[in-house]
Amino acid sequence: MFDSDSPTEKERGGLASEQSSAPGLQRRAFLATSAATLAGLALWQWRKPRVLQAARPEPREVTIVLFDDSGQLLRTIHTTTVVKTQDDWRKQLSPNAFEITRHADTEMAFSGKYWNLHEKGIYRCICCDNALFDSSTKFDSGTGWPSFWQPIARENVTEIRDTTFGMVRTAVSCTQCDAHLGHVFDDGPEPTGLRYCMNSASLRFVKAP
Ligand SMILES: [Zn+2]
Fold first, then answer.
1. Is residue 174 annotated as a catalytic residue, yes or no?
2. Mean per-residue pLDDT for 71-85?
3. What is the Å distance from ligand 1's center to 144 Cα?
4. N or C: which end of the chain has fewer CB within 10 A?
């Protein structure tokens, strides 16, 4: 009988020791909860802009320069940015163009349709038709991405500091619709010394008439 009582005493002892450490447990639980809350809050803060952006950004007033298909400057206009939902962009674009323009993805080098194109014409935004580059500024960079030493008009592209993937780069997007186009680097040829390294999938080539 005593033998059978012993485990009970041990259980009690165990229970007692658990009870005595209860404040510690509560403290740990509290700290764990706080950490989870902070992590959740951080995640929420981090996600918030993306969620809002995904929902529908507010249209902004922008200035862009219009060009005809021969690359002739028509006029400068003040307009508002083209704003669509992610679903609308997805319906309009190929899966590849959607991921690159709307989620800043990058196509594989030498995989796009324009890196080796030498025809005369202009390159428009695949999303909104904004004129972006003229073939007269295109050069063979050897990178496998269509490369230009300047945009067709400074107003038509927007350059933003990009620190993703542990690199400091300058991302280039379409001023009229915020489509991600590629990046610009300072190792290009004269006269600008710039290399606008673009994704073919972000562009639509229009042959000069
Ligand atoms: Zn655009």
1. no
2. 97
3. 22
4. N
